[in-house]
Amino acid sequence: MNAEDTTMNSPTEAARAAETRPIANPLPAGVGAATTYMPPRGAPVLEGTHLHKQFALRQFRIAGGQQVVHAVENASLALYPGRALALVGESGSGKSTLARMFARLYAPTSGGIAFEGQPVLGAMGSTRSALRAYRRQVQMIFQDPFASLNPVHSVRYHLSRPLRLYDHARTKRQETEQILALLDRVSLSPAEQFIQKYPHQLSGGQRQRVAIAQALAVRPKVILADEPVSMLDVSIRLDILNLMLALKDEEQLAYLFITHDIASARYFAEDTMIMYAGQVMEGGPSDAIIQQPKHPYTQLLISAAPDPDRPTDVQFQARGEIPSLITPPTGCRFHPRCPHAMPVCRERFPDRTDLGNGQWTHCFLYGEGNDTTSTQASIAPTAAQHS
Ligand SMILES: Nc1ncnc2c1ncn2[C@@H]1O[C@H](COP(=O)(O)OP(=O)(O)O)[C@@H](O)[C@H]1O
Ligand code: SF4
Ligand SMILES: [Mg+2]
Known about the structure:
The chain is an alpha/beta fold. The chain is built from twelve helices and twelve strands. Helix content is about 30%, strand content about 20%. The strands form two sheets. An eight-stranded mixed sheet has the order 6-7-8-3-9-10-12-11, with helices on both faces. Helix 7 packs parallel to helix 8. The model is unreliable at about 1-30, about 310-315 and about 375-385 (pLDDT under 50). The structure holds adenosine-5'-diphosphate, iron/sulfur cluster and magnesium ion. Iron/sulfur cluster binds next to loops.
């Protein structure tokens, strides 16, 4: 299909209504207001191109051989210093798998990852020392702060390990000074008291602050935050997001911020990328994605977000549930639910279309494949590695 064909398949009234509808913000009033968008400048610090991940399941079927979960298909993204990219999608859309490939906890089935322009996958990048050097720069914060801390060890232990491992503290005195400074930076004060405590003596928010301090102790350039506030009480989510935002500016950290809550994506991140069933559907400035979503799935997500002002009769309609990723739909995986699906949508996944002002989508409704900026051939793809 070419660009001219799009008029024949333009979104329906319901989809148009969803495109222009403002979204309510579940964060406190006044939070998350639009800011002037500045596109990323300079070179990305971390970049992934054409990343695929398939998990081979242990069970064999009597007929048909081994089953495979097609968790991520052909995802590319770039992170820049001092900026955040939010990755948004429902549960099971492949967000954590993508983050874990960047954290090098999972080896991509294919695709490339580059840190500061240098490819990091392959035999040379997978030695113990190469992985350690990589993790010195790229740290992950997990959803469950209780699971990421060992209940038998104190806060001091948790923060001293990265300081020693990465040679940031050589003496006990340096170590104590740095731990106290880290606790101060994440607003756990008085730091002298918190250094002695054990995970069970801390609240959920305090534990997540320790987990953030643990990541900061390494002095990374990139933080991959996988739903860092979704398990915390609503009343403290904003405090933790604000702490992370302050650190982003002070340290010029590059963030990948994973969330299923599109309003916190807008609050936290300059840019947003939407995933569905392992495929990347739409991306661009967070405000544009929320105020003028173009992809039918983004419109569905926004329509489903809590909004007391929205009459129920204008909800965007989509049929069905998220598909199994063992036998995903062909082509655009959203096609069984999409009210605009066309025959071509079942045949193949559309290339990326540039919509202007930094927004782009993978959807035949908007033509296909006019986006030259999406072709980042700088990273040599790696073939079939297995975790
Ligand atoms: N280690 C694994 N083995 C097999 N399947 C997995 C594994 N991790 C994730 N998956 C599957 O991959 C898909 C994407 O999961 P995930 O990345 O956790 O999604 P999200 O973070 O968006 O909820 C899901 O179908 C999930 O069941
Ligand atoms: S490409 Fe996907 S989202 Fe776009 S019209 Fe086809 S099925 Fe719908
Ligand atoms: Mg997840």
